[in-house]
């Protein structure tokens, strides 16, 4: 007797993020997704290394859920290997997983929430009321399309009717449509369908007006998986040395509720020629394997028996405190400077000048930013009596904030720093916040105790007199 073909639903979209708290808040506060726990120990060590195909893999993961049944967004913040930043000129036509689509219950409320978080649509709003769409980029540069209309002709039931958001699509931009369709056909157990997810005019929403492409759409459970080959403009290939831990959409996952069905999907993927990072790993009533095709697209195939595993592995809502914290320590300081925001901003963007006010003997830019020498992607080497540290600029809002992370030479993990400026009449309020996790038990507490007064001295005895002196021409 022939085995019935098992067609798995898509039940996960995974992201590699630079700042877990910032990206999680964007999806939760902006679009209404619900927290669903997370994992750290499970994502660190030899098993994670083999499953993900990354050297000495170590990360903290948080999960979010929406209205979709048995589906999650998975956010990884890697401390090893450290995520490379998304290229600043990344476009939705470039090779990779580039875009997700989210159907929202209240379109105007969603846009208003995102605006409060500092995110506005890239090209305004398209369509008449009831069928409006807009596209924005999340904190990691991923294109997120917000949909007022549901692209599914017959939407399934909801597990969480009160939740305002449901993921409806994910888009894969490929240099070879036929090859990618064949890959996903093997995993899905069926081919694409005639589903009108996007029309040519929708390309303008993500910054590609007039783009020409070929596309195919799979229905995988209640998620549409769109495969697009752009003919004009032709997309760039993967960045040199790309790994799935680099900033952006990491991969997508298809799921089964039994080991038998999982084994069938794995067998189809292998028969197609997809390469697993490692043999399928099984832990109790769940299992997982990552596959890669010849074009470099990672697809996870997992299984999970119904029941307690859903809550354990992030498919049910959980309070926000029921998840591991990447940065368990936090220090903050604020100072008022008698100088306009423009002057303070000028000083903060001059990395070499930090040796004059930040307590380091020497500061030099060892890697220029992608579009601005001192901007996003810039790396500064800071040397002093205690050693050398390399920090990388990861976000800039002109005259408002600078975000950065330490990537070498520090005794802590999951570092994130942010300097914010706020005009107070003719003066400027500077707020500096640093989060981190010590590399050894108890170390974080000791570091916080030492770093808090250092930060205050840096602001009050370093930055403040330096900027005020520069503003006065001294």
Notes on the structure:
- It is a single chain.
- By secondary structure, this protein is α+β, with helices and mostly antiparallel strands.
- It has 2 domains: 10-312, 2,3-Dihydroxybiphenyl 1,2-Dioxygenase, domain 1 (Roll); 329-471, 2-Layer Sandwich (Alpha-D-Glucose-1,6-Bisphosphate, Chain A, domain 4).
- It contains 8 helices and 22 strands.
- It has helices spanning 20-31, 46-52, 107-116, 177-188, 259-272, 308-312, 341-348, 443-471; strands spanning 10-16, 34-39, 58-65, 72-80, 96-104, 133-137, 143-147, 165-173, 212-220, 223-232, 248-256, 275-276, 281-283, 286-292, 298-304, 329-337, 362-367, 379-384, 387-397, 401-408, 412-424, 427-438.
- Strands 1, 2, 3, 4, 11, 12, 13, 14 and 15 form a 9-stranded mixed sheet that branches. A 7-stranded antiparallel sheet has the order 16-22-21-20-19-18-17, with helices on one face.
- Helix 1 (20-31) packs antiparallel against helix 3 and helix 4 (177-188) runs antiparallel to helix 5 (259-272).
- The protein is globular and about 80 Å long.
- The N and C termini lie far apart (89 Å).
- The model has no long low-confidence stretch (mean pLDDT 96).
């Amino acid at each position: 007797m022939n085995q019935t073909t098992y067609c798995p639903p898509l039940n996960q979209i995974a992201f590699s993020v630079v700042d877990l708290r910032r990206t999680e808040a964007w999806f939760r506060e902006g679009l209404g997704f619900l927290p669903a726990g997370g994992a750290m120990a499970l994502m660190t060590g030899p098993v994670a290394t083999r499953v993900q195909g990354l050297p000495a893999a170590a990360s903290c993961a948080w999960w979010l859920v929406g209205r979709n049944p048995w589906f999650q967004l998975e956010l990884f913040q890697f401390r090893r290997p450290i995520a490379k930043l998304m290229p600043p000129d990344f476009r939705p036509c470039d090779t990779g997983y580039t875009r997700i689509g989210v159907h929202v219950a209240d379109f105007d409320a969603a846009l208003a929430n995102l605006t409060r978080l500092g995110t506005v649509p890239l090209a305004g709003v398209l369509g008449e009321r009831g069928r409006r769409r807009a596209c924005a980029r999340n904190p990691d540069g991923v294109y997120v399309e917000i949909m007022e209309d549901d692209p599914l002709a017959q939407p399934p039931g909801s597990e969480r009717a009160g939740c305002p958001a449901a993921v409806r699509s994910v888009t894969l931009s490929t240099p070879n449509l036929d090859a990618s369709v064949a890959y996903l056909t093997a995993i899905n157990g069926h081919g694409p369908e005639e589903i009108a997810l996007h029309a040519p005019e929708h390309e303008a929403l993500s910054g590609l007006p007039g783009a020409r492409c070929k596309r195919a759409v799979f229905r995988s459970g209640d998620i549409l998986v769109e495969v697009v080959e752009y003919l004009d403009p032709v997309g760039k290939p993967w960045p040199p040395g790309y790994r799935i831990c680099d900033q952006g959409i990491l991969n997508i996952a298809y799921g089964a509720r039994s080991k038998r069905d999982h084994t069938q999907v794995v067998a189809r993927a292998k028969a197609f020629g997809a390469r697993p990072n490692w043999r399928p790993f099984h832990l109790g009533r769940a299992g997982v394997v990552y596959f890669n095709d010849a074009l470099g697209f990672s697809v996870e195939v997992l299984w999970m028996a119904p029941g307690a595993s859903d809550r354990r592995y992030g498919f049910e809502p959980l309070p926000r405190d029921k998840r591991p914290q990447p940065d368990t320590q936090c220090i903050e300081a604020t100072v008022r400077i008698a100088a306009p925001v423009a002057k303070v901003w000028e000083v903060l963007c001059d990395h070499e000048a930090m040796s004059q006010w930040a307590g380091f003997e020497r500061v030099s830019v060892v890697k220029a930013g992608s579009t601005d020498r001192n901007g996003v992607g810039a790396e500064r080497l800071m040397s002093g009596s205690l050693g050398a540290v390399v920090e990388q600029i990861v976000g800039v809002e002109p005259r408002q904030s600078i975000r950065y992370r330490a990537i070498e030479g520090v005794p802590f993990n999951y570092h994130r720093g942010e300097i914010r400026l706020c005009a107070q009449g003719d003066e400027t309020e500077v707020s500096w916040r640093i989060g981190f996790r010590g590399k050894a038990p108890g170390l974080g507490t000791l570091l916080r105790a030492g770093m808090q007064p250092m930060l205050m001295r840096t602001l009050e005895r370093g930055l403040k007199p330096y900027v005020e002196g520069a503003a006065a021409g001294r």
